[in-house]
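seq/struct pair 1
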Amino acid sequence: MNICTHNHIDKELCGTPVEQNDGFCKVKLVTSERMSVDHFQLVHGGFVFGLADHAAMLAVNDPNVVLGQASVTFIKPVQPNETLIAEANVNNVEGKKQNVHVKVFRNTEIVFEGNFVCFILKKHVLDS
């Protein structure tokens, strides 16, 4: 894997890349107790979104990629100690804009799905 972006991300919170090539990435996250929000042990959706976003960024794989928009659906609840796999595919490129479709699986079950609109900027978003 030749990953060019998001190299300082916390992999315990956003997942570890397991496969990456041009326009595709697969990222694995094992959820933890510290991600849960209540006595039912529901994992906060932000961690699932973060996993999906991480996979989308790595599918684009440019040092200056940023997320511009996301349209997502949380399909099933997630609990601690579950292994999630996000699969991201770039499905359309229009200049600096790339549309990425992401599915997050628990085994074969889809728990989250979304479309991410990513932009490749000329320079880092914080580079003045």
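seq/struct pair 2
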Amino acid sequence: MSHVDPGLQPQRTALAWTRTGLSVLLNAAVVLRSGVQADQPFLLALGMVLLIAAAVAVACGGWRARRLSVDITHSAPPWPIVVGVVGVAWFACMAGLASIVITMN
């Protein structure tokens, strides 16, 4: 009789997806605020894209957590989703930096 203990790594991963989404949400708020203050339509559009990306990342984290509650042995999410979330996180960082540079000029 063998019992496989998957540990808490899958749950930590699901929580990390949610934290990533929330950090993108904070970046979106910074970018939107900068866009409003500087009256920059580019930053407003960028902030809206980040808001949508944050919602998707949080939804993926919630979906993964619900899926793990049903089947703890489920493996990692598909690689396109992982690549997408990493891309969104980098995009959020660059957007935050762009909002700082644009509002300083």
